[in-house]
From TrEMBL:
Residue ranges of domain UPF0261 in the record: 3-177, 184-400
InterPro entries, per database record: Tobamovirus_resist_UPF0261 (IPR051353), UPF0261 (IPR008322), UPF0261_C (IPR056778), UPF0261_N (IPR044122)
Listed NCBIfam families: PRK02399.1-2 (NF002674)
CDD domains (alphabetical): Tm-1-like (cd15488)
Protein name: UPF0261 protein mll9388
TM ranges: none
Matches recorded under Gene3D superfamilies: Uncharacterised protein family UPF0261, NC domain, Uncharacterised protein family UPF0261, NN domain
Species per Swiss-Prot/TrEMBL record: Halanaerobium saccharolyticum subsp. saccharolyticum DSM 6643
């Protein structure tokens, strides 16, 4: 029978973990407690000791205690807990996971959670859950619950938080999952608000033809999540319509997906249809957060919390070179589509980011640099959101998958 894993520092937060353990077991579920503490002895007997965790992380617990290096200890125990959780899952022993903590406990707990696939319940009660959780959640479905008070003792307030978290993970594990639909090949697609009509039309066509489409918002994390699923073997084809995250990586916007974006499908041999969606924009927060160096650029207030900046001719040249280099290395069937009448909803005649010269540089540089012996290049005298363009992308995706 699969169990709920509890990962935590039983030396400093043992009473809190015991409280959570008792609630979960009171719901008729079994637990596996992993002790990731270093400072002292466990408050109660774990199923997997701190010595085992340290050994899995590459050092002995005695070495960590003697070194008194908090940073090194946290790294070793994070790695060790992650390896143990990964092994337990491979043995079919994990139905869910929960952890509690401050900065160190949150790092240890979420590092272990990230080894588990999407769909396995993951609950992290954290003092950091009200801030920027991206370093902890990453691209996984980790539920973070703000602890409100520090996790130090079980009191009238913390008991409410901890019991809610315990019941939450227990409910996720015990809950009746919906019957799976007929399994269909998965296609990953990327979308932004300014490319929504294109993605929606392509999705409708693909689903009418027997595919299931997972749409990822190109917000940095969205692109990373998509490419992680590609690497994990879930995806049959990638419809990468919206490659805008490359702009943020190049120029310094807030929605970068990192330097490896647009590489996973090519490396994994997954067919991909790529376009230039929203390469006209770099993303920032509210207008007053845009760096001073960009204050004289073409800025567009998308909403109170998002400011867009038009990419320049020089930036479009560089973006085209980056795309060409990545696609030319692809070991998968790859087609690049160019929408010659605009790459986003606001890159059209009369719109805020209409840029004939910028787009011309983008397309000319792609024509020059794409190795057409490896990458099929298709140009359409259409706007990216034209229905005809969207259908062409969808039909090509099916052609590449079905051969």
């Amino acid at each position: 029978m699969s169990k709920i894993v509890i990962v935590g520092t039983l030396d400093t937060k043992g009473a809190e973990f015991k409280y959570v353990k008792d609630i979960i077991e009171g719901e008729g579920l079994e637990t596996i407690v992993i002790d990731a503490g270093v400072l002292g002895e466990a408050y109660f007997e774990p199923d997997i000791s701190r010595s085992e965790v340290a050994d899995a992380g590459g050092q002995s617990i005695e070495e960590l205690v003697e070194a008194k290096d908090r940073g090194e200890s946290m790294e070793v125990m994070s790695d060790g807990a992650a390896k143990i959780v990964e092994k337990l899952y491979s043995e079919g022993k994990i139905a869910g996971i929960i952890s509690l903590g401050g900065s160190a406990g949150t790092t240890i707990g979420t590092t272990a959670m990230k080894t588990l696939p999407v769909g396995i319940p993951k609950v992290m009660v954290s003092t950091l859950a009200s801030g920027d959780t991206r370093p902890y959640v990453g691209t996984k479905d980790i539920t973070m619950m703000y602890s409100v008070v520090d996790i130090l003792g079980v009191n009238s307030l913390s008991s409410e938080i901890l019991s809610n978290a315990a019941f939450a993970v227990a409910g996720m594990v015990k809950g009746k999952k919906p019957e799976p639909k007929e399994k269909r090949p998965l296609i990953a697609a990327t979308m932004f608000g300014v490319t929504t009509p294109c993605v929606e039309k392509a999705r409708e066509y693909l689903e009418e033809h027997g595919y299931e489409v997972l749409v990822f918002h190109a917000t940095g994390t969205g692109g990373k999540a998509m490419e992680n699923l590609v690497e994990e073997g879930f995806i049959s084809g990638v419809l990468d319509i919206t490659t805008t995250e490359l702009c943020d990586e190049l120029v310094g916007g807030v929605l970068s997906a990192g330097p490896d974006r647009l590489e996973a499908a090519g490396k994994e041999g997954v067919p991909q249809v790529v376009s230039t969606g929203a390469l006209d924009m770099v993303n920032f927060g509210p207008l007053d957060t845009v760096p001073k160096e960009f204050e004289n650029r073409n800025l567009y207030k998308h909403n109170p919390t998002v400011t867009l900046m038009r990419t320049t001719v020089a930036e479009n040249k560089k973006l085209a070179e980056i795309i060409s280099e990545k696609l030319n290395k692809a070991e998968s069937k790859t087609t690049l589509f160019l929408p010659l009448k605009g790459v986003s909803m606001i890159d059209a005649e009369g719109q805020a980011f209409y840029g004939a010269e910028e787009d011309k540089m983008l397309f000319e540089t792609l024509r020059k640099n794409i190795d057409q012996d490896k990458v099929e290049l298709i140009e359409k005298d259409l706007h990216i959101n034209d229905e005809e363009y969207a259908l062409a992308l969808a039909k090509k995706m099916i052609e590449l998958i079905e051969g």
